[in-house]
Description:
The protein has 138 residues and is mainly α. The chain has helices spanning 2-82, 86-116, 121-135. It has one domain (2-119). The protein is built from 3 helices and no strands. Helix 1 packs antiparallel against helix 2 and helix 1 (2-82) packs antiparallel against helix 3.
Amino acid sequence: MASSxxxxxxxxxxxRKGLFDIAGSAWRALGDLxxxxxxxxxxxxxxxxxxxxxxxxxxxxxxxxLMATLILLLQAAIGALIALGVSSLTAILTVAAGTLILGxxxxxxxxxxxxxxxxPTKTIAQVQKDAKVLTGSE
Length: 138
């Protein structure tokens, strides 16, 4: 009986130490995973901020062209009142129409980029993948 007690005690100690080691390793691995996820999030947010700045630049460029369109349209109206010559008015209205189309296009493109590309989709997909692996529901 004494020999069986001597044998079982070291096994329990080894088992407990093994469980603590495994638990510690799991916590360290979880910490590393969380740190990697945060690094991915930080990189993706940086990428999104760059895209946001670029898109905001397009919106500002479009807004400037829309203001130029308004000025050109006003000049065309003044030109129509002062000079009844069709060629001058036609030229001004053609330039105004071109800047209006270009300005609207830039604003639309910039807003489209802002709306569709701000979500951190890479990080969300990685977290979902990691959650599936951790829960075993692949």
